[in-house]
Write a structure and sequence with these properties.
Order of helices and strands: EHEHEH
Distance between the termini: 20 Å
Radius of gyration: 12 Å
Strand content: 15-25%
CATH superfamily: UreE, C-terminal domain
Number of domains: 1
Number of helices: 3
Helix content: 40-55%
Shape: globular
């Protein structure tokens, strides 16, 4: 798995997940439950991950949308 971004914004995270899925990439979000256990939705960033084989396509999708630098 490759980490694309760490986010504290659940709305932006939802948008990025939808964008990746529309592009044929199935993302995985890690640390969702940790942020809930901590008691604050923004205390612990959630990690947006994709499979190694999907990493280049996912980065391209996010770059074209202006959501990823480089």
């Amino acid at each position: 798995m490759i980490e694309l971004l760490r986010l504290n914004d659940p709305v932006r995270l939802s948008y990025l997940i939808a964008m990746l899925r529309d592009g044929g990439v199935e993302p995985v979000v890690l640390d969702t439950h940790m942020s809930v256990l901590e008691g604050s939705l923004i205390a612990i960033p959630r990690r947006l991950m994709v499979a190694d084989d999907d990493a280049e396509q996912a980065r391209r999708i996010l770059r074209e949308a202006g959501e990823l630098d480089g």
